[in-house]
Fold adenine phosphoribosyltransferase.
Amino acid sequence: MSQQPSSTAPDASTTAQVAEHPSSAPSRAAELASLKVKLRAALRQFPDFPSPGILFEDILPIFADHSVHEALIRCLELHVLETHANEKPDVIVGLEARGFLIGPSLALRLGASFVPVRKQGKLPGPCETQAYDKEYGQDFFQMQSDSIKPGQKVIVVDDIIATGGSAYASGELIKKMGGNLLGFIFLLELEFLKGREKLPAPVYTLLSGQESQA
């Protein structure tokens, strides 16, 4: 936690906080590294699903074990605390559908609101709409028009970044509503697809992804 300058002498508690700060980064880094090992061990891979040549990363075992689920949310919390210490997010945005498994819990930890991004036609009321490219044509994401206020600081979360199209669409929706996009957080990344190159804000991935399956 950052310390604000004061015109008066610091009290004992403030002095203690300042003294502890230098050790916080190494301890958080060690904790994060240990938790990542636990997360990686929980993942399962299924070859040729949902189609031949695809190696499917199954994250659902993480949520079947409460201690691993806790490790996931703590990893995300640690990253936000380290990276955005002076810019606490106001909103966590989760992408349909696995972002809904992660986003609400992280939002609760950070004292932020949670906002879903959904496929077109799933949300009631006025919505902002953004197209994005898929392997076979276009699809459309939507967010309710009043879900993000101008100037609010926003982080987007999802399970995997592949081509980056859906994440890019979410970023465009946030910008349309005047939000300040702090970054994107993913559990896994398929690096060979270079999806992060499309995204307009910093990208963080908890675990290393797959090599090309070609």
